[in-house]
């Protein structure tokens, strides 16, 4: 299956992804309506996009006492069924990435569902920090990047 | 996709990036927009503004009918009547004061290709040399700076570069699409060095962010030149065979020791050497990119020229991974500068800023506003303005309003009743980019794309239709023979051998010429000498220094104790483009709008908390707005920043329109002495981080 | 071989799934005293509140057990286990042979030693049957007394508030939710409860329950829908005024009933069955998980009771895998609780009470006006736990702590320093919003 991968080395915290997701969920640009969040630490100059990685053994799915979380047979996305969710927030407490949020108006937990297979956040990520890739290749850009650094170290970088 | 949903490709024009988009339509209505994956320019990515075009075209405040100013307020009148009246008044003004008393002003929103040329054409067609545009304060600074050095403003070759040196530019907010190119370069091992007083969005990923005092970039550039020359790390072939003025440059560079540079710019002396070493190591694959941040200064042109010198020294001029001299897409020429130059009619600003006019045929807007008010050098009585909002974006807004208010006839074309439109006698509804079909060339990849007219509203004219109708009423119809925009575009295409149909079949862009490098081997550069001109005879003849001499900005050389802060204006925001899109509600709520950025130490000294309101004053004017206390590394102490475009707190009430770069005539807008006072304690909340 | 699981709730369901993941061939049977379908105990307060309909309580259907190829005997209590013959006896006299046995029979509410407590008008809230009995009693205007201010009790009290009852909460200890919150959070919660009109009585002792003459009867339920349920009087010790009530709900803790293990070599303590990291009891082949078990905690305690759904699920997973011959070790349970009550998100995790150890450091963010309180406790820079009162957004901070608290036990996290500065910056950033 494909998941959204995040590269903190490319993210500039422009928040287009948050806007795109919030807009799809609620037609707003409010952070609280977005399933993806970018945290920016100015003094450390660190931008970290964070969204659900649709764990193979999801902590949230395991812990849900309402059996409201299941895996989509189409996209493989771990999805919360708002009809079954009772708003107990156990999943918020369970997810180690903080990828689940609480919709205080509808009183249910919400999370990324990969937009049914065409994630908006990726389409609106102007830096390319977000990619929608097969899990086997996820973060492969790190290998390529590391290779490039190695080649530079040995003076064999790109020759124009 | 629903049964009735169709998708079309075109280019977005919410900003100047021209990203390729999919436009989804149901029953003739645009319902969604996202990025078009096949176009090499943006590869399917798009920013939030692109999607918001859906909101823009159907915005409840959009103008659909011409408005005429009457004593009892705006009156809707039919289009034909509006055009008749406007033409009639223009004709009588022309009879009374001469055609040159009529000006044409084109803004950013319709771009810089055929729509710009149409405006230029119209001016000369009716006999006026007075074409004005937003480029009295944008783009031309770099165009002139670079062209006087090596004949054209280069395009960055991000896809092959090893180091990006960014001066006063912030792509994620200004040209979002460049961001992915820069990050791709970094992923390949390339480095990013950002020179900017602020920790801008792009600086967040810089391998090195060097905060530099506003207006002092020239000193750093010279310091780098000296460091490269000292190391002997420069392209001797380019210098020896393709340049003039090297010895003078070398001699002038001597005084820019690292210590001097540090004293002038605030960049530590050790960093100067480090940056130079990084440049030398990555040369010639160095992108050396200058943003608008360097244009709005008293010494803007020469600061830019000094940066441009580096391209040649690094050997990056028209080299792979460096700064390429793009080959343009050849079309028929719409402008009339050869057929009807009209220079004898004294284009406004041409004498004061001969380079601006001489190199770009650009009249000077600030001089025009002065002319409207003073009648000197001659009366300027009418202005036909399209796609611009200078009442918000030109310096000294109060004077801009007075000037427009003093016109005998002021005609404004726009989608909305902007601050400028509110001053007009006639406001005409204009077509958005989804209602126009035009050519656009992405110079970086040398592909040409034909945009697609997807919508059409009765009574809302595209640019061609408007100029055509007006010209025909003024006896200049011969210059506008094409029936419509499509015919015009066909004519434009003739020299290329391409047809509209061919281009329409290639929404991913049509490569019009293979990308080539090192063209200076085969043909001269487009400078008078045909070579890189470290010293410019052209400028010397006009009375300017031949070298890109450095002059410290006046807020440093003669500080005014009454105005102890230096104000930078115009830093970009992702969601707004100059004064546009403030009327998209979710945009306005997505951050603190407006705000003044201030260093925490300065805030503490003034007992300011984040969100408190302050009064900011220059010698020109005063505004009040909330302060945003940044992290200590986001803005230097004693420097504050306010973005333009907010009617609640218009920073151009503070900017002067009488301090210019002497060569380009660009106003000083990014290094202004101001004072800051604390107001009450009413706190403005931040909704999200910008 | 035949694996038998006693129970049909969190631990059992999790164990059944885990067992089948590793063993598709052996027979699997689930036996439970309650008739089924399996329901979520955690959701009972939401049902009482009226937030969800009763049918949303059920978390597994027939297809689930069929899909696992599991036999079921629901509505059949286990009366005896024979750990030498490897059989067990059900209430109807029938027998089941087993090769592996998982005791996941859960726990039952404990009634505190108060004279005449059991009887008409007194409810517990643990099972679906309890909830079905209590729900029609929650009528507007009635007076309800909740004995105990534990997690379940307060959620029930909140449900009663929402349904318009006049509520009194009595707690023996000096503050509410003493096992879930720290002092400050207890105080904030208590204040909020009072603002909702709840009469909060802390540090009280209850002497006896008085009923109007002729209404005593142990376990006799009030007639469904009866408008005139017998009035009760809760008589307090000391000088505190007594409280009259129409119903009393007891939430004073739970304890497993393991009488069916008498006569076996399975070691049983007062609080449950001690198990090791592999959920093994003292008898090979017999496992325990969930509320019936006393298992390891992340803080290194060997045998702890955490009567929590997530713990039960985790222990069940380990037990089920190990019953199938796998070898999973449970890293230890971490107490975590979250609920919404009195308009606040109330949550805690791990250890959050200062012990006076100088290496401990508490990081606190609060905004009393906004009803927000976040406290994290670190020792030597390593996170121990935290308390959240107010905003669901803060749960993410506790959640981020969760794996790190576990890591501490295994000694992986040498120093929490980098994490702590990250959190502090997070906190600063959030407060700037």
List keywords for this structure.
heterotrimer; A: alpha+beta; Alpha-Beta Plaits; two-stranded antiparallel sheet; globular; C: 433 residues; alpha/beta; FAD/NAD(P)-binding domain; Enolase-like, domain 1; 5-stranded parallel beta sheet; 9 helices; 25 strands
Description of the structure:
The complex is a heterotrimer of chains A (160), B (690) and C (433). With 160 residues, chain A is α+β, with helices and mostly antiparallel strands. Chain A has 5 helices and 8 strands; from the N terminus they run βαββαββαββαβα. In chain A, the strands form 4 sheets. A two-stranded antiparallel sheet of chain A has the order 1-8. A two-stranded antiparallel ribbon of chain A has the order 2-3. A two-stranded antiparallel sheet of chain A has the order 4-5. The radius of gyration of chain A is 17 Å and the shape is globular. Chain B folds into 4 domains: 6-57, N-terminal domain of TfIIb, CATH 2.20.25; 67-138 and 342-511, 3-Layer(aba) Sandwich (Rossmann fold), CATH 3.40.50.740; 153-325, Dimethylsulfoxide Reductase, domain 2 (3-Layer(aba) Sandwich); 554-678, Barwin-like endoglucanases (Beta Barrel), CATH 2.40.40. Helix content of chain B is 30%, strand content 17%. Chain B is built from 23 helices and 27 strands. Chain B has a 7-stranded mixed beta sheet, covered by helices on one side. Chain C has 3 domains: 2-107 and 256-323, FAD/NAD(P)-binding domain (3-Layer(bba) Sandwich); 122-250, FAD/NAD(P)-binding domain, CATH 3.50.50.60; 343-431, FAD/NAD-linked reductase, C-terminal dimerisation domain (Enolase-like, domain 1, 2-Layer Sandwich). In chain C, β11, α6 and β12 form a beta-alpha-beta unit. In chain C, α1 (10-22) packs parallel to α7 (309-323). The N and C termini of chain C lie far apart (60 Å). Classes of the chains: A alpha+beta (160), B alpha/beta (690), C alpha/beta (433). Chains in contact: A-B, A-C, B-C. Chains A and B meet through α1 and α5 of A and α6 and α22 of B.
